[in-house]
Amino acid sequence: MTGRSTRMASGWLDHPLLTMGNDRSSAWLQAFAGGGLAGLALSAPGWSSAGPWLMLPALALLWSIARCPPAAGLWGCVAVLVSHRWLLALHPLTWIGVPAALSLPVAVAIWSFCGLAAAGLVASWALLARWCRRSRWSTALLMASLWGLVEVLLASGPLFWIGVGSSLLPGDPLLAGLARWLGSGGLAACQLLAGWWLWQLVARRPLLWRRWLVAGLMALLVAHGCGWWLLHSVGSGAIPADSPSLARVGLWQPSLPTREKFSSEQQRRLPARLQRALQAAALQGADWLVAPEGTLPLERRLLEPAPLPLLSGGFRWTQGQQRSALLLVERGAQQPSAALDKHRLVPLGEWIPAWLGSAGGLSAVGGVTPGVADRLWRWDGPPAAVAICYELSDGAAIARAVGHGAEWLLAIANLDPYPLLLQRQFLALAQLRSIETNRPLLSVANTGPTAAVSATANVEQLLEPMLPGLAITELEPLIGMTPYVFWGERPLQLVVAVVVLARIRERVAGSSRRQAPSPRRKTPPPGQV
What we know:
This protein is of the alpha/beta class. It has helices at 3-13, 16-19, 24-43, 51-64, 69-83, 100-131, 137-155, 173-176, 179-203, 206-232, 264-283, 395-403, 420-437, 483-487, 490-515; strands at 239-240, 247-253, 288-296, 310-318, 321-329, 338-341, 376-377, 384-388, 408-413, 441-445, 451-453, 459-461, 469-475, 478-479.
């Protein structure tokens, strides 16, 4: 190698992304920067289409500091603190009985706990990646697949985890189209692999850099092409249902401040407002009306018989337990006749573990008991997969309901008092659920988002956030199953199993070679007869 080429290689290998693993201060700075980029990618304030372009360098930085698990933990902590900063809007909590002096500390504690939980998870991931030699492509495939599987697992847990997979939306719907095959966990794995490629691109010597760049860009181009085909092909997994092809659905957004909802004044006004919304929807030709989570108070009757079916969030008593549910009030009735209970309850807000000494929650309605995990809603209309509040983040549960016959998706929520940031994240999750299942989705929330999402992830914002209103939209139910609905997370599980078995075989073979005895000489050493 000439002196000039030696200097080129030396300068390339001294790039900050490569030396950070040996410089602890640099690793911490890179962790903080990468976590901040990831948090912005998951929340994308004001420039929502930038999410994918922020997540890619954020993940490259994560791979580069994976040899230092504490720094990787900082990456995860910062990412969640930035993306979940809307949790601070819980303050003030005085309306549910928390003393004013404790309100802000409680909100900060909840926010901080989420960040610390993410730090522990990402640090554990980095520790495993370091042990498996993160620079190998098989390690990248294994660790990316494990990340995707853990995201799916966390989405079914008690906390509101917003995974890497949803950061593609709304900025890159073409790559997000791969969710038809792989689900949100598969999208997360693809993004982890893209981040590993970017990190390795910086690490390559100049002679190999162009080849590595072209290979990665070609893979991204093919992935986007497959995503486009999955979103727009006729045979992508669903066809119009046999039930009436179009339904006119009324969506009511009351925009009722949660902190005032249980005041005597609001309790007096709410039934009349709901009755007027029912009448207005009937006059506009709606087939049924949908109202958001928590609209119907406990054991409350309509003032008059419903002029059309009402699907409304509310509360009910069953077997001595209070539950949050989707309730059905049939045409001509005044009380609910069917219900689908909420399964994933908000920790502290709706449910406190018994070991803490209380069965109640911090919300004004007290403790709530979870219902069954099945999200399939069968009634006289087309069957639906129902998500109440952040059950929308659990794509696996929604996919199971679609596999059992759901023809459309319904998300009802109350996102007040949180800011618009959470509404954008909620809509990104709604788009992802529609792509995974190839089903249209209707979102109805107290202060928004009230929107219609097509099976190809196009969003129609039907009402302005934070303002009351009634919207009428058309719904076309679909049938059929996408590959993801059919096989779930099995492709990622298969990848993990194959890589692990290959690594075990490799280690066994290496151990056998080290332990094999040296062959005996068949000829005497030189100089000996």
